[in-house]
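Re: the request from the purification team.
They wanted to know what the chain is likely to look like in 3D before they choose a buffer screen. I agreed to run a prediction and write the result into the notebook, where they can find it.
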Amino acid sequence: MSIYKKLLAVQTAVKGLGKDKKSYGYDYVTGNKLLNFIKPILNEQGLILKQEISSVDTEIVNYSSKQGEKTEVLYKVWLDFTWVDVETGEKDVNKFFATGMNGFEKGLGSALTYAERYFLLKYFHIATDEDDIDNPERKNDAPITPKIKVIGEEKAKEMENYIINNPRRYKNGINDILAYFKIKNLKDLKVEDFERLVTCQFHIERLTA
């Protein structure tokens, strides 16, 4: 069996995962839950995933918070995720980019953790937008209907207040986000895009770096 047939077998086995944690006002699938489902399948197929850093850039970021002025280090990390078939030695190399911002060296760990989780979710097209899709309970014939979810009025107001209270991080205020995501109103921002912004604490420069 070729490495791609084995990777397809993994994709076929993982239908979807329900979100199990909430942070900064949004729900998401944790890395622990994802790995608990996917590692036994990878072991069965004889696949390992090598995670190697190819380059790292850092930037000092100063911003205001409810606790006062803060200084953190933004890590911009390029990685190679390499699938290896332990039986044949066949490989599949994938380049991936991630960022993490935290207190000094912790930002690198945040970036690596974020990268692993999102690489696996995106590589295997694992759905996370329903509450009842956890394996193995999910029925094999249950359809997954694509939905575009937006954040709505409440989260839009939260973002607006944050931006107003942190004017140094936005030259054009809310217009920075509206222009970047090509929307006319914050309430129309997709949930997945909101999650990206929350991950970097609404720091638009991290998305455009």
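For the purification team: Confidence is low (pLDDT under 50) at residues 131-135, 137-146.
Please add any questions underneath this entry.
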